[in-house]
Each structure stands twice: as structure tokens, then as C-alpha cells.
Design brief:
CATH class: Alpha Beta
CATH topology: Rossmann fold
CATH architecture: 3-Layer(aba) Sandwich
Number of helices: 7
Mean pLDDT: 96
Shape: globular
Bound molecules: S-adenosylmethionine
Largest sheet: 8 strands, mixed
Number of domains: 1
Strand content: 15-25%
Order of helices and strands: HHEEHEEHEHHHEEE
Length: 235
């Protein structure tokens, strides 16, 4: 029998959550588009592309995807992502110096060991290529909320009364996350030889108010509930 993946059975709930939290989604989409930049003529790999929700807003002609959850991957395929493997990045062989951009949109937050997967990704990037990591930082208000929900086993706890957004991220997905700090990821990338970084962030407001209106992207990583690290491979 095939091993059950963390996102199996959550494809619809995942997309629905973003559709209901449409302004939060717009803020994250803005960050995603800003981090990717101009992708014309570039070869991209989306690691943990999920249902391809974000990819449905870009031209996917040259976007390949890796996704362990079959039901998520099938939706991504319909949205135009070229799925090269239904499996984990850890078990996927990647061609060396093949991609201009490799990105992990929210997927590092479901991986225990980051160094081997980032090392593999950097090797698969062309010289001057970019590894882009977008995530909810463990140290952000969202990170605290998910960890508190995970440790209490519910969002319906008196500690959280009055502090929760209307439609919080599904507890099962918050609980299966391995929330990493931004500094932790920077440290791993530095150990792998990266010296050139750019950072962008969004979701600066507290989670209770995040879905009131879309937010702009700003530089840095110390305030946002969704952060992009852009690491450039040396020429
Ligand atoms: C938060 S979702 C993000 C999905 C999509 N990138 C998006 O932004 O909508 C995290 C995704 O990472 C995938 N994932 C988890 N562990 C993975 C691994 N080891 N290798 C590749 N993908 C993984 C999950 O199946 C899930 O689809």
C-alpha cells in the first residue's frame, strides 16, 4: 500500500481555505510574484507544488513540479504544471545545473531535514540561478498560532479566545508542519556556500486582521507572517 502523504485528502480543503481567505491569498500571491520576478524564457522547478494554486497565476509552460500527494498533484497538472514526479524531493534525482529558478512555496515547512534538500536544489540550479524559499516563519504570529494550536490540539481553547481569525488554517495541516525560523534556513544556506540573499515579506498584520485587505510586499524578513528568502547561486 502507498504511504499516506501529509496533504492526502486535503486538496479541496486547502484550496477552499485560500479562496475563503481571499485577501490573505492575494497578499501571498503578491509575494510569490515579486520573488519569482520575470520568468520569461526561464526553466523553473516548484518543489511541493501542491494543487498548483499559485502556479495558476503564472505561465506554466516552463514550470516543472514535484509533489508527493497524488490528489494535490493531479489538480496541479490540470492547472498546467508539468509534474515530473509524484514523490518527495528527497527521493527525486535532479539534473545538475538545469534550472534557472527552484522554489519551495510553503513546502520547507513540511520537511524535517533542510540541508540535504537545499544542497540537492542548489546543485540542480544553473550558475547565477536562484533558490527561493517562501514560508510562514516559526517566529511570526502565524507560527506561534500554529504551534499553540498544535500543542493544545485545538484552536477552540480559552487561551486563544478572541485572538483567532475567522477561518484559521486547517489544524491538521498546522500540526503536521515542521515550522522553521528564517534564521535557521539562512544558516543552512550559508553553510552551503550562499553569500547573496534578498528578502521580502508580507502578512505584517496580526492574523486576526490579515484577511481584512490585501497587503503590499516589503523588504526584509523580521516582521512578516509570510517571508521569501531568495538565495543566488554564484556565477
Ligand atoms: C503548504 S503546501 C504548499 C503547496 C503549494 N506550493 C502552494 O503554495 O499552494 C506544502 C506542500 O509541500 C508538499 N511536500 C511536503 N513534503 C514534501 C517533500 N518532502 N518533497 C516535496 N514536497 C513536499 C506537500 O505535499 C504540500 O503539497
Amino acid at each position: 500500500m502507498e504511504k499516506k502523504q501529509k496533504f492526502d485528502g486535503y486538496a479541496e480543503q486547502y484550496d477552499e481555505w485560500f479562496m475563503k481567505n481571499d485577501r490573505l491569498f492575494t497578499s501571498e500571491l503578491r509575494l510569490f510574484l515579486k520573488a519569482l520576478g520575470d520568468i520569461r524564457g526561464k526553466k523553473l522547478l516548484s518543489v511541493g507544488c501542491g494543487s498548483g494554486l499559485f502556479e495558476s497565476y503564472i505561465d506554466c509552460t516552463n514550470v516543472e513540479g514535484i509533489e508527493p500527494s497524488k490528489d494535490m498533484g493531479q489538480i496541479a497538472e490540470k492547472r498546467g504544471v508539468n509534474i515530473i514526479r509524484c514523490g518527495m524531493i528527497e527521493e527525486t534525482e535532479l539534473q545538475e545545473e538545469h534550472y534557472d529558478i527552484i522554489y519551495f512555496n510553503g513546502s520547507s515547512s513540511y520537511m524535517e531535514e533542510l540541508k540535504p534538500v537545499y544542497e540537492k536544489s542548489l546543485a540542480a540550479l544553473k550558475k547565477g540561478g536562484r533558490l527561493i524559499l517562501l514560508d510562514v516563519p516559526k517566529e511570526s504570529a502565524f507560527g506561534f498560532m500554529y504551534l499553540l494550536g498544535k500543542s493544545l490540539g485545538t484552536y477552540e481553547h480559552e487561551y486563544l479566545k478572541g485572538a483567532m481569525p475567522d477561518l484559521p488554517y486547517p489544524l491538521a495541516l498546522a500540526s503536521s508542519g515542521v515550522w522553521h525560523t528564517t534564521e535557521e534556513k539562512i544558516e543552512v544556506l550559508k553553510e552551503l556556500g550562499i553569500g547573496k540573499f534578498t528578502f521580502y515579506q508580507t502578512l505584517i498584520r496580526n492574523p486576526l486582521y490579515t484577511n481584512e485587505e490585501p497587503e503590499e510586499v516589503s523588504e526584509g524578513y523580521k516582521s512578516g507572517g509570510y517571508v521569501a528568502i531568495i538565495a543566488e547561486k554564484e556565477m
